[in-house]
Every structure is written in C-alpha cells, then in structure tokens.
Amino acid sequence: MVIQNNNLTIEDAIAYRNQHPNRNNYSISELTNLPKFFDWVNCNPSDNSQFSMYLAGADDGVVLRFFWNGRYEYFTLKTWSNICSKSKVIVDIGAHTGAYTLTAASTNSNASIFAYEPHFMNFARLNLNLRRNGFNANCAHMLGVGERNEMMPFSISTDISYLSTGGSIGARNNSHITPIQVVKLDDFFPQNMHETIDLIKIDVEGFEGSCLRGMSSILNRGLPTIFFECIDHTAGSEVFSELSPLGYSFYEIDDLTCHIKKVEDIKPIFDDLGKPKMNTLNRIAVKNESLQRQLDGLSTQQ
To answer: Which of 70, 204, 220, 281 has a Cα-to-Cα distance from 25 of 20 to 30 A?
Structure first.
C-alpha cells in the first residue's frame, strides 16, 4: 500500500496496519512517525474484555500502542482483567484516558468502579471513551489522590495537546503547571465502604507513597490487591514500607515476555542507558492468599 497522505481514514489505516506484524515492539518515537488517523480504535486487552478508544492523530500513546503494536501492557492488563472479574469495588488512580477503567468495566459489569484523573485533557478523553462504550461517566473524577485533601501543582512536560502519561503531582522545571484538587481516599469514601474496596491500580509517576498514606484505613480494613508502577528506588521503597507491615507479597510483571515472578523487594529495573525498562514497570501487591497461590503458580511455571 502506498501512502499518499499522512492522514488516513480508518479503513486505509487498518490496511496499512495489516502490512506490519500482528504484534510488534515499535517504540513510541517510531509510532508517532507512522501515518496519522482520527477515529475509534478497537482494543482487546484480554479474551473477556473489549472496548473502543479514540485516537486523534498521534495524541494518545496508549491507543497508538493498541493499534500499531497490537497491545498495550498486554500481560498486566490481562492479569488485571482476570482479577477485575472477581472484584466488587475497583479503584483506578491515574486513569489517563481509561485503558484500565475500560478493561474493568468491560470485564465486570457488576463492579463499582471509581476512576481518578487530574489532567483536564486526559479527563476529557476518559469521559469520551467511557460514553462511547456505554459506560456511566459518573465513575470518573477529575481529581488527584494523595495523603491529604489539598490543592497541589500538577506538571506536564509534553505539549499540552498530547494526552500525557507522564504528568505528575508537584512543580517541575520546564513544565506546564496547573493547580489540581488532591483527595485523601480514606475521606473520599464513607467508612462503611473501606472494607469493600478490593482492587486498586495506582499510576502516579512516583507519588505512590503519598496515595497509600491517604488510604491507610482502606488498606487495613479491605486489604485490596494493588497494581502499581515502580519507576525509581524512592517510590519503590515507600510502597514497600507502607504495605510490607500489612503482610503483602509482591510480584513483578514482564509485559514483553508475559512472565510474572515473586520478588522480595520493590526496585526498578534499568536498561543500559540507565532508564527504567518500560516492559518491567508494573508490580502487584497481594494480601489475598488465594490470589497469592494463583500468582505463585504462574511464577513457578516459568
């Protein structure tokens, strides 16, 4: 197929996409140089989950990966989907444009889902994606999550039109900074709900420790399973110090090899350039003994 125009219809984009391997590992820089198109992308993170997400040119790296790579955080989302199917109350902190929220909603229609995304651009797309798939957008909250109820600066280092996955709470140099409302989850949820929250995802670019300190009652009473990223030693150490005393076990996911293994501590894995390896960012903290046995079985099969 010869590309005459860098902007494609969805039909032309699919035809061009079919010239590439079904699953591949093109980097985000390679993906942003591929022809652009503006339409809905079908996403299938697991056998029992499917939904659509909108892509406007190359403005969402998550949807770019779903379309061109054939997957996004494949093994993590597959594991997330499996656990969502057995969960009652699911919390997605740092929901971005909704990949994990949409996976949860399409996997388990009976679960109560709460999504938190403080960046107004991401939040707008999250709402659009939820409505496109027939899910109630009332589950989405344009809020950050932290240790206290307060206003804080939120920094975006990419172009404002790009739906960044790297926004973070705090003021950073050379960034677009906006004020956001941060909430303490122990206060956001009524006391009688604390023990019902059984699954949480946290993607907050190093702010994990603060999130966890703001949900100490939920952690102690509900002992939820927690998916989170490990991007630096400090963030990993903070997560470990909050969850280890509660008896949590920790697992490391490799989204490239589709493997999971039990680990004794939480530390990032770096490449030869000293940058965190993107395929090994994700971790799971588990207290539930039945789920631990399942994950231990996956780990020993490798």
So the answer is: 204
Say if pTM beats, i.e. exceeds, 0.85.
yes
What are the DSSP calls for 83-138, one per residue? Answer: HHTT-SEEEEES-TTSHHHHHHHHH-TTSEEEEE---HHHHHHHHHHHHHTT--GG
Per DSSP, the three-state class of 11 is: helix
Q: Which two tokens stand for residue 142?
A: 């344009």
Angle CA 43–46–48, to nearest 5: 100
**3-state SS, residue 253:** strand
Instruction: Give the mean pLDDT of 116-126.
Output: 96
Give the pLDDT of residue 5: 47
DSSP characters over 206-250: T-HHHHHHTTHHHHHHH--EEEEE--SHHHHHHHHHHHGGGT-EE
The rounded distance, in Å, linking the Cα atoms of 53 and 200 is 22
Written in H, E and C, the secondary structure of 176-192 is: EEEEEEEECHHHHCCHH
Whole-number Cα distances in Å, 239 to 13, 89, 134, 228, 249: 42, 21, 35, 9, 12
CA 117 to CA 121: how far, in whole Å?
10
The residue type of 23 is R
Q: What is the per-residue pLDDT for 195?
A: 97
Q: Any idea what the Cα angle at residue 124 is, between residues 117 and 165, rounded to 5°?
A: 50
Residue 83 to residues 76, 79, 182, 233, 260, Cα–Cα distance (Å): 11, 6, 27, 27, 15
Could you give the C-alpha distances from 123 to 96, 98, 264, in angstroms and in order?
Answer: 7, 9, 36
